[in-house]
Amino acid sequence: MKHTDVVDIFSGVTPIGSEVTVCGWVRTFRDSKNMAFLEINDGTTLKHLQIVIDKNEIKNDEFMRLGCSVKVVGTLVESLVMKGSVEINAKEVVLLGDCPTDYPLQKKRSTMEFLRTIPHLRVRTNTFNAVFRVRSVVGACIHEFFQSRHYVYVNTPIITGSDCEGAGEVFKVTTLGYAPQYKSQEEYDKNDFFGQSAGLSVSGQLEGEVAAMAFGKIYTFGPSFRAENSNTPRHAAEFWHIEPEVAFAELPDIIEIAEDLIKHIINTVLTKCPAELAFFDKFVEHGLIEKLKNVVSHKFGVVDYTEAIEILKKADKDFVFKPEWGEDIQTEHEKYLTEEVFKKPIFVINYPKAIKSFYMKQNPDGKTVAATDLLVPGVGEIIGCSEREWDEEKLLQAMRERNMPEEQYDYYIALRHFGSVPHSGFGLGFERILMYVTGMNNIRDVILYPRTAGGLM
Ligand code: 4AD
């Protein structure tokens, strides 16, 4: 169907006075004695296009319904009411798809909770139009960041035999149903599709390291799956994960890359999505644009885990979880550190080795690892990062302390055997950074079909 995108109508490339064909869904309509007005949106911009209908010329009116889809042929004119804007004087309006009056998206703003029950329709609202436009721009600019810096984009396997994070949150992949004849888990696994136990990847890091040991600098951008039963606004069972891995890089080097990436993302959104940001600033998080501008113009903070625990212990706060050296930094602690103490994104570095993964480089103190989490106000952790243990003996020792099955990690250990190098990497949660740049406060509202414990939509 030949037609002009509404975004091009507003961009000024189509001359005033031209005859155009536009398509879209009816977002509002008004009727009077001689005239009728439709506002349509085709999804190519947040803006609605006004269609002016002379009822003496156009007799049909079956398109005067919220949600129906139309094709309009008419003349592009300057708006009489909105100075500097344009509208269409209709010559013909064709109803493409009717929409009955029980259409769930009525003029009144619906709650986010209600919209989550209609994921197939909520994408037609202004909020989701803005969210997914930003999501698309951010996805593209992440590729651009790495591509322009000579990183190789690799796709790591989604079905794997190893649990990278070792947290036991792996979804099983199986073709075998319940089979009481198998005497043991091992026997059951042997009879399964792969002849061994398999699951959905929680992270592409381990295979990413394989690629980095050949191509120097790589990144992955794909889905990760975690069977965490945590019903929080920032956890999803299926999320998109960006994982760069860099050879010959130590912790300070990778921290610099992570900060540059976050600033690149924010700068791109500020430049390419001004209308969407203005929308979020007005309806979702007041002061969002100011916050983002502020973040890109200041250096992120760096604080040692041990110092962070000291700050938390001295805080005049009634934390549910008492801060203690050796314990995880909880959401309430992250909030206090980023929102009340530092008031900006911070890298917390050098965590106790016992609470972190086996692959992290052990610091000379014997107690901590060269790892960092990037915490941001409002969202908390958006990046998990570390220098990798590249000494074969130390890696084996960390695996043995955790009773890990070494034979499953042969290839990973071999990387330390054949030309090992210092290397580092991180994982950025795509939905977490989207929450940060849009101000949306629930991960379920920045992903098309959120997957969380308790049901599939
Ligand atoms: O800190 P995590 O677990 O680190 C890793 O997976 C490393 N293998 C990354 C690496 O070094 N290559 O996860 C990294 C990030 C988190 O900071 C968070 O942003 C996101 O992934 N993330 C989740 N996002 C949404 N829902 C979940 N359940 C998430 N779990 C982690």
Mind explaining what this structure looks like?
It is a single chain. With 457 residues, the chain is α+β, with helices and mostly antiparallel strands. Helix content is 30%, strand content 24%. It has helices at 6-10, 112-116, 119-122, 126-147, 185-190, 205-215, 251-272, 274-283, 288-296, 305-314, 331-341, 392-401, 410-414, 430-438; strands spanning 19-31, 35-41, 49-54, 69-78, 86-97, 152-153, 159-160, 199-200, 217-225, 238-247, 301-304, 346-352, 368-376, 380-387, 423-429. The strands form three sheets. Strands 6-9-10-15-14-13-12-11 form an eight-stranded mixed β-sheet. The longest helix has 22 residues, at 126-147. 4-amino-1,4-dioxobutan-2-aminium adenosine-5'-monophosphate (4AD) binds next to strand 10, strand 14, strand 15 and helix 14. 4-amino-1,4-dioxobutan-2-aminium adenosine-5'-monophosphate binds next to strand 10, strand 14, strand 15 and helix 14.
Task: List the SSEs and their pairings.
Layout: H1 6-10, E1 19-31, E2 35-41, E3 49-54, E4 69-78, E5 86-97, H2 112-116, H3 119-122, H4 126-147, E6 152-153, E7 159-160, H5 185-190, E8 199-200, H6 205-215, E9 217-225, E10 238-247, H7 251-272, H8 274-283, H9 288-296, E11 301-304, H10 305-314, H11 331-341, E12 346-352, E13 368-376, E14 380-387, H12 392-401, H13 410-414, E15 423-429, H14 430-438
Parallel strand pairs: 3-5, 6-9, 11-12
Antiparallel strand pairs: 1-2, 1-4, 2-3, 4-5, 7-8, 9-10, 10-15, 12-13, 13-14, 14-15
The protein binds 4-amino-1,4-dioxobutan-2-aminium adenosine-5'-monophosphate.
4-amino-1,4-dioxobutan-2-aminium adenosine-5'-monophosphate is lined by residues 164-165, 203, 205, 226, 228, 235-236, 239, 241, 243, 381-386, 425-427, 429, 431-432, 443.
